[in-house]
Structure to design on (906 residues):
């Protein structure tokens, strides 16, 4: 890689023999290109970059393209069927509903990337929500809200550690361990509930109000804009500086125009979201502003993206998912990484649990059953988003985008007055379709 | 294999070939298991028992653990239930009825587990099948004869299984994802067919066509008829067993010693007599007489017999075990892996449909959305199969294991409900099967590791 001239202007096609052979690589069959260094790493100009990306899409590594198309299709179809679908009120509703699916899908991705599955994330979420709500009860333990959240997250992580150890050390099949685990958890959650209803909707108690506002609260419009400016400014500067530093050190870097495009895209999406959220969506009075839930999802997304894409642990996760035996021979401790994968999945499900408690306000045994059924939505969201069921392929952002599709389908069908059992049928069909696409695209991809 | 056919079975055969055989039996379990299974070479009862013990020690424990577990569970609950009510004839008969759906679903699941796959949709498909049958025999309605409704249900469920099997076998989508989708799909369709969340459908005992379905589980065979049926079944099974062993011995094939065959027949007769005896006790209260063998026992026996013959005595069954043991080896041996897998899923779902009909019959002929939770049904049936001794990794297990495991699960569920646990009763309904499932899988994983067979060296 060191022989590629780094001083070349990114807008110009680079000259020299090494680059000529590189050019030839790009126009070769996708198999040949993908077998070597990924072409997008070698691409220097925006045009080359786009061509390399297109080759990759054609060879089965389509990334977020299908899910973005799916979002567009869902949005257009439901808007045609019911003009209220894209109204500000409904869009904010949709974001809020999807938030739990998104976080749960991000949890599932840790297991899926390892080539395992965690069927218990739904109930871990339900368990976490029950723990949080039970701990802040003024008539009960009366813990402060932050202590309750930490306790719930720790409890969920411990469950993940136990399940992960059974999977990683004893090599019990993960779907069975988590199936048994979810049954036991359901029982434990009912015990924690004490056979009655636990609620956090009492506005006389600060701890309950804080928990309630996690899901239902929002920033004032001005704060929303300021936050957006800070976020886009920070992310844009970070992105730009990283690329600049890589370029300075002579590492492969995407062209400047691409970096600029990424920043612009981020800004446009951000402005659109804040603008939609700042519309007054109340029938009477004023409800406006960005819900807290949006930055919360973004923080989880950012943290897990950094963990998976920028740390050694993340590289090991992908290595194990791609080829466990190769990873083991390379010196990766399979049991440790796998166990941590399940711990992180359960921890993320616990975060979803806090959101879920805040969303549902009062928790009952029936709500726990609902939480359990969310695991299918989480798997479907992750797979629809582009995460492979066979491990080693997928990113945290896929969970967020897939969650948006699932939330959109639920919300749209609900608006059309479709009954819940038919919504289940549609989601099942979507899951099967996503799994089929995953299998077929993987078959198309050179291995 | 040419061991002297003329020698009396009780005698140790002479000759060099047999001498090495004896040496084999006393060798380390690993060495014995690697070659011809010792129980095939064993000629006397003593050798047979020793060979069986070697097999148990090397991890192939068969039905032994589940039978031991049943004994332990029975004794424990008899001691801890109030008034020591667990082993009362009325409770034992009720447990069998309660376990029916688990036994039948576990047999269905066994077929798929043997392939190294899993079907998480059996619970939803079973409920769907039950509802279809009930809908078809509605008198102001479709009014099909009961047998046509049952056949239509089996065909419909078989088709569902074939579709899922095709996705798993031809497209190679992981079977737990396909059947997870199927689970969600049919849980939804089930509610639609029932006519919404409050919908229900029932069969009446006063309409002769519907009464057949109503009495499938609860209906009783008169005590005299029960004894007569037992005599016929034991005589037929005993004669068949004896003649088969005799025929093998005559033709110079490997056969178990005659004493073992006799013990087996005696065991069948003993269990049969015990079951009929328990069922003939009058379990009615006061004025009403309730006695006799419930119809569900012969029905389960027929399903067990059909699955046992299919898996143990047909080419299809051998292929199922071959694929479960090593799919690549089976493929290279010319087995059409995709076709066998698809058929196994189809037969699994058809059996599940039958289980659903029996479930509705058990609940006094009524089906509503609250009859059973499809997710819990599938967990119980996987747990039943694995507890019974079916391996999750394919290639090991029998239909009988599903029946025994189902009985154990049903016994535990009912035993817990007999205890006065108050608020702990509901959570325990979840915690116990979950714990039992994990324990069974743990034993499966460890015993498979101990046996050193198959592809355990998964990284």
């Amino acid at each position: 890689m060191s022989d590629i001239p780094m001083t070349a202007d990114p807008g110009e096609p680079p000259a020299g023999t090494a680059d000529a052979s590189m050019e030839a690589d790009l126009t070769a069959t996708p198999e040949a290109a993908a077998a070597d260094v990924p072409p997008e790493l070698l691409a220097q100009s925006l045009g080359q970059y786009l061509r390399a990306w297109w080759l990759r899409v054609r060879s089965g590594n389509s990334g977020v393209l299908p899910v973005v198309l799916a979002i567009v299709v869902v949005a257009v179809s439901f808007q045609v069927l019911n003009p209220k679908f894209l109204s500000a009120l409904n869009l904010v509703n949709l974001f809020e509903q999807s938030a739990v699916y998104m976080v749960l899908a991000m949890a599932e991705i840790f297991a899926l990337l390892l080539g395992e599955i965690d069927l218990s994330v739904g109930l871990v979420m339900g368990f976490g929500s029950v723990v949080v709500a039970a701990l802040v009860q003024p008539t009960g333990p009366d813990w402060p809200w932050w202590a309750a959240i930490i306790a719930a997250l720790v409890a969920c992580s411990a469950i993940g550690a136990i399940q992960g150890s059974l999977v990683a050390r004893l090599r019990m099949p993960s779907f069975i361990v988590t199936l048994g685990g979810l049954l036991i958890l359901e029982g434990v959650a009912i015990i924690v509930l004490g056979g009655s209803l636990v609620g956090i909707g009492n506005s006389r108690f600060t701890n309950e109000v804080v928990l309630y506002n996690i899901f239902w609260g929002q920033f004032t419009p001005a704060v929303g804009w300021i936050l957006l400016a800070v976020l886009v400014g920070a992310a844009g500067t970070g992105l730009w500086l990283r690329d600049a530093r890589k370029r300075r050190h002579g590492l492969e870097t995407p062209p400047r125009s691409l970096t600029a495009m990424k920043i612009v895209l981020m800004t446009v999406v951000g402005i659109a979201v804040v603008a939609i959220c700042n519309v007054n969506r109340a029938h009477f009075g004023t409800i406006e502003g960005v819900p807290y839930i949006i930055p919360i999802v973004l923080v989880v997304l950012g943290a897990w993206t950094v963990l998976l894409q920028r740390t050694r642990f993340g590289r090991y996760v992908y290595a194990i998912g791609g080829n466990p035996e190769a990873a083991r021979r390379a010196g990766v401790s399979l049991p440790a990484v796998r166990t941590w994968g399940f711990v992180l999945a359960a921890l993320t499900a616990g975060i979803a649990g806090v959101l879920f408690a805040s969303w549902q306000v009062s928790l009952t045994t029936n709500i726990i059953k609902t939480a359990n059924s969310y695991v299918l939505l989480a798997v479907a969201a992750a797979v629809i988003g582009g995460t492979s069921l066979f491990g080693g392929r997928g990113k945290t952002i896929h969970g967020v985008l897939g969650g948006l599709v699932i939330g959109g389908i639920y919300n749209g069908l609900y608006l059309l007055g479709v009954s819940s059992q038919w919504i289940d049928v549609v989601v099942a069909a979507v899951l099967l379709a996503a799994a089929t696409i995953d299998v077929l695209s993987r078959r198309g991809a050179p291995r | 294999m040419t061991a002297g056919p003329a020698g009396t079975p009780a005698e140790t055969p002479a000759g060099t070939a047999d001498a090495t055989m004896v040496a084999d039996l006393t060798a380390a379990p690993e060495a014995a298991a690697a070659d011809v299974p010792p129980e095939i070479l064993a000629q006397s009862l003593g050798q047979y028992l020793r060979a069986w013990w070697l097999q148990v020690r090397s991890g192939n424990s068969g039905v032994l653990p589940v039978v031991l577990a049943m004994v332990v569970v029975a004794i424990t609950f008899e001691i801890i239930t109030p008034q020591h009510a667990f082993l009362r004839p009325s409770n034992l008969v009720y447990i069998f009825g309660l376990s029916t759906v688990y036994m039948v679903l576990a047999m269905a699941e066994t077929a798929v587990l043997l392939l190294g796959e899993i079907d998480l949709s059996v619970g939803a498909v079973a409920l769907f099948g039950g509802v279809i049958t009930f809908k078809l025999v509605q008198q102001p309605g479709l009014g099909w004869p009961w047998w046509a409704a049952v056949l239509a249900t089996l065909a419909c469920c078989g088709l569902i299984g074939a579709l899922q099997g095709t996705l798993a076998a031809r497209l190679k989508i992981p079977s737990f994802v396909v059947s997870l989708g199927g689970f969600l799909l049919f849980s939804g369709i089930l509610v639609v067919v029932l006519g919404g969340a409050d919908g229900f459908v029932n069969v009446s005992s006063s309409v002769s066509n519907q009464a057949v379905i109503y009495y499938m589980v609860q209906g009783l065979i008169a005590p005299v008829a029960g004894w007569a049926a037992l005599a016929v079944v034991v005589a037929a099974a005993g004669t068949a067993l004896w003649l088969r062993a005799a025929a093998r011995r005559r033709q110079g094939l490997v056969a178990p010693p005659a004493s073992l065959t006799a013990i087996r027949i005696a065991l069948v007769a003993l269990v049969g007599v015990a079951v009929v005896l328990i069922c003939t006790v009058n379990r009615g209260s006061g004025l009403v007489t309730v006695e006799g063998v419930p119809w569900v026992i012969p029905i389960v026996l027929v399903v067990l017999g059909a699955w046992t013959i299919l898996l143990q005595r047909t080419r299809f069954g051998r292929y199922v075990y071959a694929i479960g043991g090593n799919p690549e080896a089976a493929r290279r041996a010319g087995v059409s892996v995709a076709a066998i897998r698809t058929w196994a899923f189809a037969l699994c779902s058809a059996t599940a449909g039958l289980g659903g009909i029996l479930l509705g019959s058990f609940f006094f002929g009524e089906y509503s959305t609250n009859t059973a939770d499809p997710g819990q049904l599938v967990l119980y049936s996987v747990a039943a199969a694995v507890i019974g001794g079916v391996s999750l990794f394919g290639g090991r297990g029998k239909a009988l294991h599903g029946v025994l495991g189902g009985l154990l699960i049903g016994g535990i569920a009912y035993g817990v409900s007999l205890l006065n646990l108050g608020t702990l009763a509901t959570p325990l309904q979840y915690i116990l099967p979950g714990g039992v499932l994990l324990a069974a899988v743990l034993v499966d994983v460890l015993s498979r590791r101990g046996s050193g067979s198959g592809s355990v060296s998964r990284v």
About this structure: The longest strand of chain B covers residues 200-202. Strands of chain B lie at 200-202, 220-221, 293-294, 366-368. Chain B touches chain A through 50 residues (CB under 8 Å). Chain B has two domains: 61-219+295-450, 220-294.
